[in-house]
Specification:
The protein is of the alpha/beta class. Helices cover 33% and strands 19% of the residues.
């Protein structure tokens, strides 16, 4: 028998405390073999995230059946109020399903999905939010620009350029050279020797951004997780096209632009910490945010298109051909 009334039923509607949520999935089943140094990598990842986010961004960590050392470390971070949420899974449900599940349970309009080996640099959050708030029809932004991804699931971005919605040009960005090579090196890809190679740059409202991005870290509009992202679970541990199907293609299908910040604001570490990574974190700690009275950013409305796979594939081919015909790199 119930006595009285639950007082929460008379409480006011919940108010969101922030507009941005960072979600990191960690799977470290043991501390040997491939995973020997990954806990150290994850700690640097999370500590850099904590040092570089302001009060307008909350952090969720999804523990995807990691070992006890990881669980204990996360418990400490939560008890010290350094992170907002921990989701524990007894069994590994797969990277993408863990990310998408956490994203759909989040309420913030901007949701950043991150691998466990990302090193955040002070400024990444505000730079991403600056792109979202000043450029219309943006579906995703990455803080790691890479010249190689101009043609990777970017036909919706090219469409906006062809229709004159944003300005476009190729330009050299020499200050991106070293960070870009660090990204290429983390995958054992060939390095670039020419600092003057040109980048695909869009501009709107005096804000510049790079066309395209990878998916190691992606900030996405929340609307995508309930429209263009597949409703059925991936049931994939990692890889096997799961990132493409649940992140990359849904961004493009939505009709929104896939962009990266103009300069580099994060790094892909791999499974070993190096001295230069620690040096970046030292700078982060010297510059970390101390104010909790930050103004919210304004976010343009964005309505993702409903997926029509047949029309999407046809339009994608046409747009790529037309763009490359009209905008050859000079």
């Amino acid at each position: 028998m119930r006595l009285g009334m639950n007082p929460q039923k008379q409480a006011r509607k919940i108010q969101l405390k922030c507009q941005h949520r960072l979600i990191i999935v960690v799977f470290i089943p043991s501390l040997d073999g491939y995973y020997k140094n990954v806990l150290e990598v994850f700690k640097l990842c999370l500590e850099s995230a904590i040092a570089t986010t302001n009060s307008n961004c909350a952090i969720t960590v999804v523990n995807n059946a990691s070992c006890d050392d990881v669980a204990q470390y996360l418990k400490e971070q939560l008890s010290e109020e350094k992170i907002d949420t921990i989701i524990h899974h007894k069994e590994n449900i797969g990277k993408i399903d863990a990310l998408i599940g956490a994203a759909r349970g989040s309420r913030e309009p901007i949701i950043t999905l991150s691998d466990v080996d990302i090193l955040f640099q002070h400024g990444w959050q505000t730079e991403i939010e600056n792109v979202f708030s000043n450029i219309k029809n943006v579906a995703s932004v990455s803080p790691i620009p890479c010249r190689n991804f101009q043609n990777y699931e970017t036909s919706s971005t090219f469409s906006k350029i062809l229709r004159g919605k944003v300005k476009f040009k190729y330009k050299s960005i020499s200050e991106n050279h070293d960070a870009h090579n660090k990204y290429l090196e983390s995958f054992h890809w060939d390095l670039e020797t020419n600092e003057d190679l040109k980048w695909p740059v869009i501009e709107s409202n005096n804000v510049e951004a790079i066309v395209g991005s990878g998916h190691q870290i992606l900030s996405m509009r929340r609307e995508l997780f309930f429209t263009t992202v597949p409703k059925v679970p991936s049931l994939t541990l990692v890889g096997n096209n799961s990132e493409y199907l649940y992140c990359d293609q849904p961004i493009n299908v939505s009709g929104g632009m896939r962009l990266a910040t103009y300069n580099n604001w994060a790094y892909h570490m791999g499974n070993t910490v190096e001295d230069w990574m620690r040096d970046i974190q030292k700078k982060n700690l010297m510059e970390q945010y101390v104010s909790d009275n930050l103004e919210k950013f304004s976010l343009p409305n964005f309505t993702p298109k409903q997926p029509n796979r047949i029309w999407y594939k046809f339009k994608k081919r046409v747009v790529y051909k037309l763009f490359n015909l009209l905008h050859k790199e000079r």
